[in-house]
Amino acid sequence: MSDTSSAKPARNVVLVHGAYADGSSWSDVIPLLQRAGLTVTAVQNPLTSLADDVAATNRALDRQDGPTVLVGHSWAGTIISEAGNHPRVTALVYVAARAPDAGEDYNALAAKYPTPPANAGLVHHDGYAQLSESAFLADFAGGIEETRARALYAVQGPIAKDLFQGRTTTAAWRDRQCYYSISTQDRTTAPELERFLADRMKATTIEVESSHLAMVTHPDAIADLILMATRGTRSPA
């Protein structure tokens, strides 16, 4: 995507959560976007397969009335990379997110970077996986007040054990204007990997001193980045 390209202004935002989370992870960002006059939808992913998650996002996009910015956190970066060529999507926003190329083995790419501590906290049961409470609080939701972090843990979505094996068939970030928020204190995805992905897609990039859940710890910064995307600009208004 060219650095000089610009996206059409959008009045809708679709937010897509990642693994070990649900749509409530966006609850601090949503009112900020609504206050700016935007229509906001948060997808609830089944986390059963890439195809199922993409279908859930496409259903949300189909319901939008006009130009829409599509936002993904963490695993949802894979989802929006696949779904982002939807005709209503004007721009993509990645928050500490995966961003595979078409058909890319993302797990092999991630293995070239430091192994994040959260990986050691996965607990498997009956074909699904979740983060243990200790890993969730320390590595996934680091820096969040304990009561809030435990509430987020309680709504953690179990993921199919082979969820991360799914590969995209397209890379929408090659055809849409992109924005990326890097979490510099991330213990779930290596910040070095996030920087590589942001650079590869030539995204407008910010860095926040945050754990993996930057939309909880820094909702204003994430909302501002999304607002830039809705205006189709590369800098704050």
From TrEMBL:
Stretches assigned to the AB hydrolase-1 domain: 13-224
UniProt GO molecular function: hydrolase activity
Pfam families xrefs: Abhydrolase_6 (PF12697)
Keyword Disulfide bond (UniProt): no
Ligase keyword on record: no
TM helices/strands, residue ranges: none
This protein's UniProt keywords: Hydrolase
The protein's name: Alpha/beta hydrolase
Organism: Micromonospora trifolii
